[in-house]
Amino acid sequence: MLLTPMAAAAADGDASALVPSGSGPVPFKDIDDGTVPADEHTPRDKDLSSDLVAALPRRQDPIAELLLYQGCWLPKYWVPGVIEFQRRFNPRPDDVVLASYPKCGTTWLMALAFAAAARHAYPPAAAGEHPLRWLHPHDVVPFIDEVFARGEEAKLDALPSPRLMSTHLPFTLLPPRVTAGGGCKVVYVCRDPKDMVVSLWHFLRRSCKPPSKPEDLSFDELFDAVCDGTSALGPAWDHVLSYWRAAVARPDRVLFLRYEDLQRDTGESVRRLAEFMGRPFSAAEEAAGAVAAVVELCSFGNMKVLEVNKNKVDSVASGNLAIPRDAFFRKGVAGDWANHMTLEMAARMDGIFREKLLGTGFSFA
User: Fold this and answer.
1) Which keywords, in A-to-Z order, does the entry hold (predicted)?
2) Helices and strands counted in the chain (H then E)
């Protein structure tokens, strides 16, 4: 396996390679090499029995027990990490947090953001040498609340600036240091909820640990939970509105993207993303095909066939889920909902979201 410059320096005993230096972003996997000590504080174990968590409303869905925390249904095992993230995260001004509701383009956004932001250190067109050719995007960009849940803040602190991090939390659950306006930048991607629920259903059926039985997850049950606002991370309309309103209020701090626009014109979306992150493409880069190189590297067709991403044995750990790496690359299309739900179901979901979004200035139409 090829090592990135930072990982190679660390392997050679250069401790300065793990000190934030403005040379980022670098893959999170490079930091997670066993040399950075884990925090003895283990919030997932400690806080599950706390009075705060014990008092939260709860419900059981087919995959996990959910707790209603600050207006959002969270898997029980997420809550301690979220609490610690809210309490202890110290953003840097050039941090970029990539946010989404599950199965709305998370993995694609991770890849595009990293490829665009790190293109000078890791040229996208370099054959075989780019981290995204041998690391899964989730090994490159960490889920920040998971980092806090595992007590691995030292690894986050060791990342050089600018740091890329990801979250599925709504904007309202991000730490005040982020949402107050001066903390860091946030990029959000949304998707037609009909396609989201189809993708989520396929994903969950492949990502459960015993005693959960993924084959028992009914599409109708998940569909109803999304429509009722009781699915994990729901209500889904509140999730998208939290970022929409933030983007309207602070377009310099929050970039709002649509999955369908990413598909329709990936190059233009990459330009917007790079400019927002403070890494705009120069005229010379445009002429040299740098945007096209990012698009090609991160295309669904390319990412799906890479060995690291089509592995069905190795998994990406997330809380109580063990997710086969190829589960993140199923179809990557818009409109697949038509193969899974009736027109009546589609009309019901469209109607619910239309009503919930009425008067907000945002719609999925």
Assistant:
1) Transferase
2) 19, 9
